[in-house]
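Per reviewer request, we include the raw input and output of the structure prediction for the construct analysed in the revised manuscript.
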Amino acid sequence: MTTPSRSEILQCKSIGKGLDGFRETHTSNSKDIDKRSEGNEGQINTLVDLMLALQSLLASRSLPSKRGNTALFNDLLSLNSAIFSGNLDTARIKPLLEAVLNKEPNDVIWDRVYDAVTESTPPPRPPFSFQQTLQLRNTSSFANLNEHCKYVDEVLKEELGPIYVGIPHFFKAFFSEIVEPAA
């Protein structure tokens, strides 16, 4: 069984009047998104209504996701989550909102959906704050033989990193509440 192409899905599962309810409810144009401050309840409601309207379309459950073997519907759910968490740049959704309100053709609307759900490349992660070194040897590689004992201290120091000795009041600060058992 072959997977239908995008054009076949859009032909069989056209938007038709599927977004008319959203358009009737949100007759103001998309510039209102810019006028509202980030996190504004009205802005969030408009975007959530748009996501719900798109999720209700049969094509959203048939079109493939850009992220894997799931449907575009799942990407819309993730976008909805981003709206609620406040981690959404409205510029990502504005072209989609304009396309829906301007009654653009199916292909254009679905292109804008894909643009909206496609996340930008995340910034590079900062390097680790601790030293990572290639361990060529470690204590687990030693056999219980006396001839290897002289190397254990050296290898332990490599594994543990800096060791501090003679810290004043260390025991009192960390172990003062522990009662030693009677001998």
